[in-house]
Inverse folding.
């Protein structure tokens, strides 16, 4: 019988670890150890799937048990999950959709994206026992400390995941501040966590949920029809409110416009891929100092995309400049930040490849 791999056998952290690591590389140790205990690693955060459940018609929830190297997360944060698909490691960001259990287990919920590689794989094929790599948690979506002022959480599509974790963490508090979650989906069968949300609101008068349906007719008392607009928001508008929004870019932009100057605090995150405007033409020479390679790459293209197009696999995560996984040193050359348009002339120690493009010949520490 295989030993339970999570948490793995705890090797000594004292002189034994130093002595052994001098003799055997962590990667080699992991290679052999994982034949018997797939979620054990000398130093890498990994997680094993311990349960799966259909969360909606097009979404699956996976409960993951991390090994001892994972340092946890705050509700509202995200993490990068690495999955092997057809022999290649694919990394995508997911937001835990519930606070962590006391033993560290946590849940992610993945909505299938048409033509999507990781979401389709996780929905159709992830099974109990599978092991994925984990990145450290990142992201700033969080409610400020409870000051008694009302809170409004706005979610659409897969944007429900961090909001669900935040809402459930409020339900665990003794006297949470009045909080309303407005959750928008096209249809009823695309909603996740409906029973869980209704159970929370039944138990906590201060917590309310309103389901917005853009294609189905509203039926239950907590449902309404239509998109997020001024009328839908009117009952919840309060100049003292703290508002968080998460969903596709169109939803987040609409929320930002509707709430401009009408709430004390507004923070939002979008899961949709950013659209970069390419204003630079031509190609430049990119030198990779550590590997000694030289490539010709298009100006204006995210450096991460350019490196991948050249057959390289630099470490990466969210592809939106949030998680810092792709950060690397730049010792010379001009780069443009593709989200802000700013041009960086100086050498930097942490250039994010996913949101930076080359403007001139470059030398990167890769
Ligand atoms: C911080 C963060 C947290 C996230 N949390 C969650 C989460 O909790 N649950 C969840 O289901 N997803 C979440 N996502 C989205 C997730 O990371 C993937 O982008 C998504 O699962 C699609 O990956 P894929 O490999 O299936 O698609 P890909 O193969 O990467 O892309 C296929 C096509 O779909 C487009 N596409 C990719 N992602 C999206 C998207 N989110 N919306 C619309 N079109 C898209 C691509 O541009 C491409 O055309 C999060 C994203 C970020 C940045």
């Amino acid at each position: 019988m295989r030993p339970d791999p999570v948490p793995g056998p705890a090797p000594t952290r004292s002189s034994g670890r130093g002595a052994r690591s001098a003799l055997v590389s962590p990667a080699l140790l992991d290679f052999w150890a994982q034949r018997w205990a797939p979620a054990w690693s000398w130093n890498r955060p990994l997680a094993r799937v311990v349960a799966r459940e259909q969360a909606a018609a097009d979404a699956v929830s996976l409960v993951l048990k991390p090994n001892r190297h994972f340092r946890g997360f705050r509700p509202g944060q995200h993490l990068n999950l690495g999955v092997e698909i057809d022999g290649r490691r694919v990394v995508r960001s997911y937001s835990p959709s519930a606070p962590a259990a006391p033993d560290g287990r946590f849940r992610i919920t993945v909505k299938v994206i048409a033509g999507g590689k990781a979401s389709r794989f996780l929905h159709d094929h992830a099974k109990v026992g599978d092991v994925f790599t984990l990145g450290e948690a990142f992201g700033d979506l969080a409610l400020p400390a409870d000051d008694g002022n009302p809170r409004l959480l706005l979610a659409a599509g897969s944007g429900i995941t961090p909001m669900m974790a935040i809402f459930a963490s409020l339900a665990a508090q003794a006297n949470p501040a009045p909080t309303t979650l407005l959750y928008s989906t096209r249809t009823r069968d695309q909603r996740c966590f409906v029973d869980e949300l209704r159970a929370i609101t039944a138990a906590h008068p201060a917590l309310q949920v309103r389901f917005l349906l853009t294609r189905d007719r509203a039926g239950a008392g907590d449902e309404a029809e239509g998109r997020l607009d001024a009328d839908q928001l009117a009952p919840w508008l309060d100049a003292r409110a703290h508002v968080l929004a998460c969903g596709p870019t169109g939803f987040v932009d609409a929320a930002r416009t509707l709430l401009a100057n009408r709430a004390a605090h507004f923070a939002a995150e979008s899961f949709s891929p950013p659209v970069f405007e390419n204003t630079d033409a031509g190609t430049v020479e990119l030198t990779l100092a550590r590997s000694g390679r030289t490539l010709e790459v298009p100006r204006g293209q995210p450096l991460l995309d350019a490196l991948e197009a050249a057959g390289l696999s630099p470490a990466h995560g969210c592809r939106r400049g949030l998680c810092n996984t792709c950060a690397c040193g730049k010792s010379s050359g001009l780069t443009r930040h593709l989200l802000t348009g700013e041009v960086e002339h100086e050498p930097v120690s942490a250039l994010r490849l996913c949101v930076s493009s080359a403007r001139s010949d470059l030398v990167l520490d890769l």
